[in-house]
């Protein structure tokens, strides 16, 4: 499934410049790989622009959290309790592994909403964190991780084999009215065979004659963004 590149260093500048280095870390060490993603892809699920010079950094993933590091792969591996070795794996086609996967929402961030809305949403999001058995069938499809059973709740669109965008099937329907339009949109990106990350964006937009009144209440264009991770936790 992958080719191990033992001892790959800056002696291969062309490869280093075109591929991002990812360290998937847990207690006991890290697994390092070259990813097809770039800083723009990462920005979609970190909800922030990549730092200047991200091409020379390592993206570290740990328990659903991600951050950029200027430390070497070896130092990062040591910091997580490894032996200081983190040879790069070059994945040809990234295929998610079947098994138990755990979804974990990040912190909700709101803009243009009534004060405290993100705090009200967060407990409901946290309740969605539970493991589930996923059989991917040899290809990435975020619909396979859905908890809706046969009742499809998200319509997914494949942008690339490792990246999908989605929309709630109720967009413009349930909850919407002549006063407000409610939509929920998603992204899902396969980072490695054991990691997926994405975002959920809830938007409540005022429309019609009552738009001015809703604007005074802070509901003219309310957006809540939530990053989430989905990691393999067992066989």
What does this protein look like?
This protein is of the alpha+beta class and about 240 residues long. The chain has two domains: about 1-90, no CATH class; about 100-235, no CATH class. It contains five helices and 14 strands. It has helices at about 15-20, 40-45, 75-80, 115-125, 210-215; strands at about 1-5, 20-25, 30-35, 60, 65-70, 90, 100-105, 110, 130-135, 155-160, 165-170, 180-190, 195-205, 220-235. Strands 7, 8, 9, 10, 11, 12, 13 and 14 form an eight-stranded antiparallel sheet that branches. The protein has a six-stranded mixed sheet with strand order 1-6-3-2-4-5. It is globular. The protein starts with a strand and ends with a strand. The model is unreliable at about 1-15 (pLDDT under 50).
The largest pleated sheet is described as: 8 strands, antiparallel
Counted up, domains total: 2
Topology order in helix (H) and strand (E) letters: EHEEHEEHEEEHEEEEEHE
| Number of DSSP-assigned strands | 14
Give the radius of gyration: 20 Å
Strand content: 35-45%
Uncertain stretches of 5 or more adjacent residues: 1-17
Helix content: 10-25%
Q: With helices defined by DSSP (H or I, 4 residues minimum), what is the helix count?
A: 5
| Category by helix and strand content | alpha+beta
- Give the overall shape: globular
Our measurement of the CA-to-CA distance between the termini, rounded to an integer number of angstroms, reads 17 Å
Q: Average pLDDT, to the nearest integer?
A: 79
